[in-house]
Amino acid sequence: MHIPTPGEIRDKRVKLGLTQTDVAKRSRLSQSMVARIEAGTVDPRVSTLQKIVGVLLDTERSMITAGDLMHQPVICINSEKTLASTIEIMEKHGISQIPVIDEGVPVGCISESAIINAMEEGKINKTKDHLVSDFMEEGFPTVPPSTDIETIVHMLHNSHAILVLEKGKVSGVITKHDLMSMIV
């Protein structure tokens, strides 16, 4: 475990745009205690350092946005693609669902589940070239790049992915895997 130096605490606080008073209020310490810790004139207890570091980490986490988390390019297909070519793309990239985007605008998604359900219902046969538009589901939710991480986490509870839109066009995608990769 790394114990931050007074200078590291001060630098992180400044980088995050916080004042000593902000840190003091959020950590329930006095501003003078925060100032003395940053100056290195007091040797704080571990619990005091934990409070300050906790405030800095929470602030840093809340500053992460969809634009920071998203990855590019977005692997997607057009609604007029054949189901067979879509399955090939999904297999090639090891994905179980794929956004359907026409002229940069999301119009739905296609998933392994939708394909399996259609097979089970007898709607798919090998002799016909089926189109994605015949089996696509409701699309992934969309957010602007400025959306905060808390909103992203909440949305990913109910969706496999989120599309990031900039000026009405898809610019990135965020999956549950992208969120989990922040941990490592």
Describe the structure.
The structure is a single chain. The protein is α+β, with helices and mostly antiparallel strands and 184 residues long. 44% of the residues lie in helices and 15% in strands. Strands 3-4-5 form a 3-stranded mixed β-sheet. A two-stranded antiparallel sheet has the order 1-2. Helix 2 (20-27) packs across helix 4 (46-62). The radius of gyration is 24 Å and the shape is elongated.
Which keywords apply here?
184 residues; three-stranded mixed sheet
Please specify the SSE layout and strand pairing.
Elements: H1 6-15, H2 20-27, H3 31-39, H4 46-62, H5 66-69, H6 83-93, E1 97-102, E2 105-111, H7 112-120, E3 142-143, H8 149-156, E4 161-166, E5 169-175, H9 176-180
Parallel strand pairs: 3-4
Antiparallel strand pairs: 1-2, 4-5
Helix pairs in contact: 2-3, 2-4
Total strands: the figure is 5
Mean pLDDT, all residues? 90
Give the C-alpha Rg. Answer: 24 Å
Coarse shape: elongated
User: What is the percentage of strand-forming residues?
Assistant: 15-25%
- Helix count, DSSP H or I runs of 4 or more residues: 9
Element order: H for helix, E for strand: HHHHHHEEHEHEEH
Oligomer type: single chain
Which strands sit side by side, in order, in the main sheet? 3-4-5
Helix content: 40-55%
Low-confidence stretches: none
Structural class estimated from helices and strands:
alpha+beta
N→C terminal distance: 15 Å
* Biggest sheet architecture: 3 strands, mixed
